[in-house]
Write a structure and sequence with these properties.
Shape: globular
Order of helices and strands: HHHHHHHHHEEHHEHEEHHHEEHEEEHHH
Helix content: 40-55%
Radius of gyration: 27 Å
Distance between the termini: 78 Å
Number of helices: 19
Structural class: mainly alpha
Amino acid sequence: MSEAKAHGNGLTPPAPPDAFDLHLDQLNDDLVQLEEHGTKAECAHAIEGLEALASYIRYRQACLSHQVEKDFVRDHEERGVHMDDQTRGAAACVALARKQSPHGMRNYLVNCRILFEDTPHLAAACSRGEFTEAQAQAILTPLQDLRAQRRTEFDQYFAQNPDMFESMGTRQITQTVRKFVLSYTSDQESIKQKTVEEDRNLTLEIDQQRGCIKIRGEYPLLPGMCLKRYLDEESKTLRKKGDPRTRTQIRADLLFSYMMIGEPSKMPVALNIGVIMTDRSLFAGEREPALLEGYGYIPAQSVREWIGGHQIPNDLTFEQMEAKVTRENIEQIEVRTELARFYTAPGDQELISMDSKTRLFPEKLKKFIAVRDRHCRTPFCDGIVEEIDHVKQYARGGKTTVSNGDGRCAACNKAKQAAGWYEYTTYGNGHSITICPGSAMSYKSTAPPATGYAHKPFPQLMRDGTWPQKLKERLRPPDDPECVAA
């Protein structure tokens, strides 16, 4: 109980309007009725409606929070105080009203400012309950690194592609926005990554309460991702062989064994990471970010430095770079580059398909689907692709093709086996599937574009390489000899 309420200082909150009470009571009665007598479909529909209502309420909270901040700024200007920090006190006031810690509330208010001053189309979508508060924050936080003009440019792009975040989890949303941000801040991000080499560290902290040692450290991106990829793959392999330990336990044991035993007997150790980028970014110096598998988007310049074997100073010309190349530029980690080409359909950003005649997905087809999907295809799931499976089950006539395959995390791939759950591919921009989880509700999942930030609409016939044969089959008369023979 707050101190004001405990002492009864006469601060009585204003009573809500009678009409609001009536609507609230009616909503409560409807929900009680659903809890007692509602079907599975009705309950799921009510949950979705309540989520939209909660999102709308959070939007209104953001409106009021932004107004509180403006009132604090106006008050400080009139008094002539705190001119170096005009928003002082606003974050604490909003945090107390929301019964939250004030730490991090300044960042929330900055996002509110961006939402209402720089991104009106995004604000309109939030007012309709299209984004939860977490999703809205995932969009707005990366935009803090851009100037107002660039944020408005992104908002215009969103207005032209309102479905660009459809069915995405917060991590996927952040990566999509970050890809846009890196197009303008790649130099600063590249400089930031270079400082990590000097700031690398490892600490061992004693936790007497739990009786353990906590290991914390910071490593540069390239060796750090190699280490993570190796531990993940080894732990997964041992689990498949029947190791009773969990994957986290296996990773901890592997790291400890290498630290204590020393260098492995077989040298050199080959550690692989996957980077996806356009040929224009790799060879022509374009700024479109590269996708580091398992991490997210990084500046294309960082990848060019890994392949080139030495850093490219951001503030030097090409002639100055050549003059400064010395033995100190030779990296301790040797990068051996293997290029794999993925082709997109003419005029768009979609990867051309691959097929197989077997039930199991071949390794190259698995890799192709994993590159295309990047994340678990279950809507709003940010899990990594661990398993490749059929959209329409093979037992029900589904084919082993790239269009009938999708990537899932292990948990979601098990969930789709539930009774009444079915999925099917749909026509649209990009590889799209419709998921029906057995509750009369349906959700759409679309693979991210290979390049760019959103799918470009264009005729289906231009994308589907098998359309001539399908068209001939549709136009073939029923009494055609080929049709009868089939």
